[in-house]
Amino acid sequence: MCGIVGYVGRRQVAEVLLESLRCLEYRGYDSAGMAVINSKGVEVHKRVGKLNALADAIKRHPIIGHVGVGHTRWATHGEPTELNAHPHTDCTGDLAIVHNGIIENYAELKERLVGRGHTFKSQTDTEVIAHLIEERLKRHPMGEAFRLALKELRGSYAVCLLSAHEPRRLFGARSGSPLIVGVGKGEAFFASDVPAVLARTRRVLYLNDEEVVVLSAEGPKVMTLEGQAVTRRPSTVNWNIAAARKGGFAHFMLKEIHEQPRTVEQTLFNRLSVERRQIAFDRHTQTFLNRLSVQEKLVIIACGTAYHAGLVGQYMLEEFARLPVDVDLASEFRYRGPMLDKHTTVLAITQSGETADTLAGIRLAKEQGAKVLAICNVVGSSIAREADAVLYTHAGPEIAVASTKAYTAQLTALALLTLYLAKRRRGVGPARWRELVEELARLPQIIEQTLRIEPAVKLVAEQYASPRNFYFLGRRYNFPSALEGALKLKEVCPLIHAEGYAAGEMKHGPISLIHNGWPIVFVATHSPVYDKIISNIEEVRARKGECVVIASDGDARIKRYADSLLTVPQTSEFLSPIVVAIPLQLFAYYVAGANGCDIDQPPNLAKSVTVE
Ligand code: M6R
After folding, report:
1. Domains present along the chain, CATH in parentheses
2. N or C end of the chain, less CB within 10 A?
3. Ligand 1 site: residues with CB under 6 angstroms?
């Protein structure tokens, strides 16, 4: 979703803003703009399309200045046009604002402001904020006018304001959308996400909802929306800019696929000890989990890929921890009137920790007395801060819109959680527990080995680059893998329609579409339902569908059922979704590549969905 940046310091601001905005491109956007303050007042430049269009415009008409704000817009209210692009200004042109989120009461505010003589230039909800501040400025100094205007907003926002009235300062605030402050030496930054400031500083201050910041080159002054001063020290980010760059790969998606042996290792690090036959977490999380281990029910909420991880988690936790689990799409959970109480634990799974539906879901859970555990990748994100306990995945920054390494890290965290609870709930015998722990410890090497099938996957993907419809089928633990395989393909190759199904569900409808040459990707690794999957493959072949089969190494029987065969190392069914994720991700990547798609930033998609 929209990306926000702001800078106060001694460098030429246009350069800094462009560089920071580039680090936020992964969030998805359709127009970009910036506003800078200089002797001419507030200068605004905007362009539709990619950042290069804005960079070219600025090259032709350089803007000089040391304080400014920038924005990449992912259209919600009004089409992606130059007029609707941010920053938005008030009637005087002295104020310029950038915003991420949705102002729900913008229509009524706009009507009131128009009644008071304000002229609007765009169709956006954001522009009302600039005019509201302008209105408040008639009676209040800048900082107060900003704060009072924000108090009138309903909905979600992260905002940064540039003002000719305070040319050496920026004003920022958040409520429901992410905003961080980067603290450098004699310079300071606003940004929607950490990668945008990493080239300049690793000292970051995470803002809470309803906090306001006045930012100068000396640093931030934080206060509540009520004007009360807040004391908070910046924390140091433990990864650097190299982790947020492509490192020689053609795309972030490919880089992140290849990072998986390391990222899974990081998720396991310090938590799994085969010698001591122990799984351990930090003390706080462990206390939380010990309480969960005597509970009767767990509800998992998540969106998209993280939801698929939750579905795998349900199989894991029910089979080995014998803990009843419900899994809900966070966007449905909050509207279905869930029955929660203090005996329920809600587990939110999220890469970004900022997904609006998941965040709303955990707030609802807490209101109803449930405890909240999060599996989250981004330290300091909203969900990480609001949850009662967090199991961080430590997968490092995930930049490609299509989630890959965050997914396998989530599955690894779920495997750890399952085995931890399985021991306490005596859901599995000690010998089997030990086998699973040993296999989990070998997972980084298993993934390394799995990645060796990349050339084979590329060949198969290129062979299947032209069909426009795909089914992905699997059963049990790999039913969610089928959903995820289909999601990956349609995300990165928007020319293709791909559906994931439980293979046993085929005969209840979807099979009607299968005809000569229709490609079906089957996940058919060893499992208790292996024979049933073979029957499903037979059903498809009888209708002349083309079967791409992902099977276990050494499976001689499967050969005659597959038009194209990809094999992965043998594992327990418990860990197989992590391993089969690799060929599924690579398949999507290479089909998209063969179709010339914009792999890292697919159209219409945003990395972090911070609006409902
Ligand atoms: O940051 P989150 O894990 O909460 O995001 C949830 C989904 O928006 C996300 O997984 C989305 O489906 C990805 N683009 C999948 O590749």
Report:
1. 3-244 (3.60.20.10), 252-441 (3.40.50.10490), 452-594 (3.40.50.10490)
2. C
3. 303-306, 350-352, 355, 358, 401-403, 491, 608-609
